[in-house]
Amino acid sequence: MIICINGKFHKKDKFEISVFDRGLNYGDGIFETIPTFNEKIIFLKEHVDRLFEGCNKLYFKLPWDKKAMLNLVNLTFEKNVKFEYGRIRIIVTRGTNMDGTSTEDVLQCTPELIIVVTENKLPSKMVAEKGLKLMTTKELRPYPEIKTLNFIPSVLGQILAKKKGYDDVLFVKENGDVLEGGRFNVFIIKNNILKTASHDVLNGVTADKTIKMAQKMGFNTKKQKVQLDELITADEVFATGTTKRIIPITKVDNNIIANGEVGPITKQLMSKFSQLFY
User: Which residue(s) pair with 255 in the sheet?
Assistant: First the structure.
């Protein structure tokens, strides 16, 4: 494995990050996960665009522009083993200042960049056929529109969900607004209309590709509030994400979605997505 650290390439066991890095001390960083298929990187530009948007919101002073970042990602990919299904992780932290906790010179930090290529295991055939079982939680991820390193609500939520026999969590506000899953966007289908949350969620790259694809297939799509009772009574529900692509959701808490089987529109979308992008 070859890892890119600040534009230089290292073997897996020959690199180091300062113990004063703010990403380690405060989770003061951002990341992107980009899918790959054989010799091809999927949706690279879209993920790098979102990375830069997030860095701007966090006031990171990146020493790389988008062209340089794209080049580094491509070079890292070229230097590594090509998996049938892989993923590239880009991590950017604010960097190091004094003892890693001081706020006096925080805006003068030079960000640290890490790029890693690993294998991606897609959801099992059983999950694809049976669908995800989700447990709702009101412990929401902070700054959900930015893909920060603080994913503790997702990590802890998934642990607790698995302890109770579920696959993952579904974030729901106190007022019943459905947001997103632990690492994925959520769509409902009702009367052939696809709906997904418009606020307080990550702008998913796979979600956006799914919306455009569905529109070309003749389906209506809406980005607007989705209530939990609306989801529970939907005709179909599915998740989208880099590591999941499109995967059905058939149970939320004790509620079976429709008849508990993968719906016909979800099947169409799953098949079409693979044909178009993989």
Answer: 252
What pLDDT is stored for residue 125 in this prediction?
A: 84
> Which stretches within 21-147 are classed as H helix?
22-26, 44-57, 66-78, 125-130
- Residue whose pair of structure tokens reads 């569905």 in the numeric block: 214
CA angle 181, 32, 114 (to 5 degrees): 140
Lowest-confidence pick of 10-19, 89-98, 206-215, 234-243: 10-19
Beta-bridged to residue 29, according to DSSP, are: 93
10 Å CB burial of residue 243 (0-12, 13-18, 19+) is: middle
Which residues, in sequence order, are CB contacts of 158 under 8 Å at separation 6+? Answer: 168, 169, 182
Closest CA to 210 of 235, 183, 184, 245: 245
Edge-to-edge strands, sheet with 29-37: 8-11, 2-5, 112-119, 85-93, 29-37, 40-41
- Candidate from 95-99, 186-190, 255-259 with smallest mean pLDDT: 95-99
pLDDT of 45 strictly over 60: yes
Angle at 200 between CA 132 and CA 102, to 5 degrees: 110
Radius of gyration of the chain (CA): 19
Task: Report the C-alpha gap between 40 and 76 in whole angstroms.
Answer: 13
Q: Cβ distance 32 to 147 under 8 Å? A: yes
Place of tokens 């052939």: 192
* pTM (whole model) above 0.85: yes
